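Inverse folding, one chain.
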């Protein structure tokens, strides 16, 4: 691990007008995250395509089990 990495257990980014582009960028980051247990995404602008990108990242098996997805 690089010295500047942080262990993030919860990320609440609700009501931020996140679109599919942002969801796809978040998905890339989630692929290598191993500590996130709670992800709050309520009231954003994520459609099926952004949701699919997030789902694929969470299913990739490269990270710890997500305990709660708040969408």
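Residues assigned per position:
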């Amino acid at each position: 691990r690089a010295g500047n990495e942080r262990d993030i257990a919860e990320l609440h980014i609700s009501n931020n007008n996140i679109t599919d582009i942002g969801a796809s960028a978040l998905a890339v980051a989630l692929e290598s995250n191993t500590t996130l247990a709670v992800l709050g995404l309520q009231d954003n602008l994520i459609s099926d395509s952004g949701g699919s990108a997030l789902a694929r990242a969470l299913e990739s098996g490269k990270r710890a089990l997500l305990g709660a997805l708040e969408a």
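The chain is about 35% helix and 15% strand. The chain has a mean pLDDT of 83.
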